[in-house]
Amino acid sequence: MSGDGWIRQVSPYIGQEEADAVRRVVESGWITEGPESAAFVEELKEYVGARYAVLAPNGTLALALGLLALGIGSGDEVLVPDTTFVGSASAVLLTGARPVFVDVEPTTFQIDLADAERRTTSATRAVMPVHLYGTACDMAAVSAFADRKGIQVIEDAAQGMGVRFGDQHVGTFGDVGCFSFFADKTITTGEGGFVTCRDEKTYERLRLLRNQGRMNSGTFIHPSVGFNLRITDMQAALGRVQLRKLSTIVERKQELHAAYRKALSGIHGVRILGAAEGANLVPFRCVILVDDAAALMKHLTSCQIEPRSFFYPLHLQPAFASLRDPDGSDRDFANAVAGYERGICLPIHNSLTFDDVSRIAGVIRDHQELSQGA
């Protein structure tokens, strides 16, 4: 809880150790991408089990970089779940390709492969499973689908640090996998991203694309067209400290989620999202479903608790109006729409206390009982 009495939605778990690490980089005089960044990449690769990887400025650009490295571009289509952050789709548009929105399944709101099947065309080049809200897509099914269709897999693991499907870390199943280190993620560098891949040729393309079309800095001969998609050693130094804290962060998040489950049990009309089958849960938020999410969020806010809604369905986003099928309807994305109308994200971060969880649950219980009485 913050000093003003509010229970905030986001509170990064950073302190003096991170500040000291950044200060050391500043004092060294080497603040751009350098030794700290190289060390961060190696530590991240070891943690997730990736063979090759590069850093990126943020999660959206990590996805765009990954797509470009796979050769995705103008005239191509990428299957994207309708329930996800807007950056999943805008990254596709950055490459010149077209995102094709796919409904989600109603249990954990991961991509619905049956719906993906009917939206696949001759232009489909990739599928983008999004590991949503701290659990994993069924990557065995996604991989089988992609193999059958002859398309590539780009995993959006922006919320997936610490998440596994079976005994394998998310972001390492697909042709590329992309992570985010934004301030609300399990570990943060403020802004930042990470792209993994399985083969050396893709890795070489990633390196060229992110570093102005050259393998190494310090030369003015550029064999290929590329961009500046690097980060700084200040960010990497912060991230290395965060990575050392990851097990502590994950354990605390899981304890808080268990406390939510206990405190919210027995409340009429409240369903809590958990781990998908075959996956663990590193809760990005505590996600609940109720009949009238808008009314409950309004009540939570009036009690100085910051809620967040589910992601607004991509097919309804004003920014993507030109992508809509004029003959389509919301019924084509029934689960994504239902998730937005019924879903609420409750705070779950390391600054949250068990008393905060009890307070939030009490407010929800009072509202639900009053709603029943009405």
How would you explain this protein's 3D organization?
By secondary structure, the chain is an alpha/beta fold. It folds into two domains: 16-102 and 109-244, 3-Layer(aba) Sandwich (Aspartate Aminotransferase, domain 2), CATH 3.40.640; 246-373, Aspartate Aminotransferase, domain 1 (Alpha-Beta Complex), CATH 3.90.1150.10. Helix content is 39%, strand content 13%. The chain is built from twelve helices and 13 strands. It has helices at 16-28, 35-48, 59-69, 86-94, 113-119, 139-149, 200-210, 233-244, 246-264, 293-302, 334-342, 354-373; strands at 52-56, 77-81, 98-102, 124-127, 152-156, 164-165, 168-169, 176-180, 193-197, 271-272, 286-289, 308-309, 343-346. Strands 1-9-8-5-4-2-3 form a seven-stranded mixed beta sheet, with helices on both faces. The chain has a four-stranded antiparallel beta sheet with strand order 10-11-13-12. Strands 6-7 form a two-stranded antiparallel sheet. Helix 2 (35-48) packs parallel to helix 8 (233-244) and helix 3 (59-69) packs across helix 7. It is globular, with a radius of gyration of 21 Å. 49% of the residues are buried.
What does the secondary structure layout of this molecule look like, with pairings?
Layout: H1 16-28, H2 35-48, E1 52-56, H3 59-69, E2 77-81, H4 86-94, E3 98-102, H5 113-119, E4 124-127, H6 139-149, E5 152-156, E6 164-165, E7 168-169, E8 176-180, E9 193-197, H7 200-210, H8 233-244, H9 246-264, E10 271-272, E11 286-289, H10 293-302, E12 308-309, H11 334-342, E13 343-346, H12 354-373
Helix pairs in contact: 1-8, 2-8, 3-4, 3-7, 9-12
